[in-house]
Request: fold
Amino acid sequence: MNIKRFINLQKIKKALPLVIIVLIAAFAVFLANNYLKTRSSEIEKSLSDEASKVRTTVTVPRIDLNPGDVLTMEQLASRTVPKEYMNFDVISPEQIDAYIGKKIIRPVRKGTPLLESYFLMYESVPFSKSIDAGSRAITIPVDEINSFSGLLRAGDHIDLFYMMKRPQEGPPSAGPQPEDTVLAPLLKNIEVRATGQTTVREVLAADRAREAGLGERQGQAGRATYSTVTISVPAADAQKVILVQTGARIVAVLRSPDDQGDAEKRLFLSDVIDPDAKRRLQMPGPQVDYIIGGRFRTGEYADSSEDQAKKLEAFKRLLGSAAGNPQ
Reply:
């Protein structure tokens, strides 16, 4: 039997280089894949070794703890663990005194680092328990300006002002006055108890996480977005805030908690734009205003009597003052 009749050697010779190229490519892919896996393992091991070098001391129980157990010092021990793997609310030996005598609310196995969230004092205390006797918590809306672009945090101190439209102040004989915008202090040095749903407790926990270098890994929030802030004020002041909200806009001004100064007095928009307006209104007769060097000034007023000579004399004094040569 002639095999050459079934096998085309010429075609095999032509396809042989292509087959060799495919085999070489497959072998190269195999080698590259094997190298990448080996290199990845080496990098992971290196990172793990680096993380294990940075260690921190935590508090762990010597025995298994169950919900309802009261923590005692005899149940505790300390151990060092890689800092990279710790929760942001892990309890250090320096903090453990605050948790002695508190109830455990979840099972904790022996040797497991204790966390703040394992205790009743952290998760089950309602917000109302943080309000002092005789005080009331009030939630007020804020905008981008009042929230200081999210920089306002629970625990900060603020002054509250109210802003509203009301008639300008003027002499009774002048009749009804046009509306003016007034800004007046409402309350001073008020502590912010919460921004949105973030309370002082969460802010303190986030600060501890940042100090421990765990904030970013634990998903610590940056500048939060919120539309309300909650303050705690005496009951009488709470009534003022509630009433003012019905007819005016409340503006928050951030201040230092150590600053004991009083807020500014009531101020009208017209007083800022034209400080001399009220003085001109109180002049007994018609006045002449003039402009020198691009600045508006109030001139002397002309006497309202019928004596034309007095009016002329007053006008001359005005011209002399405007020219810089008072007579």
The chain has four domains: 3-40, 56-123, 129-267, 283-323. DSSP finds seven helices and eleven strands in the chain. The first helix runs from residue 9 to 53.
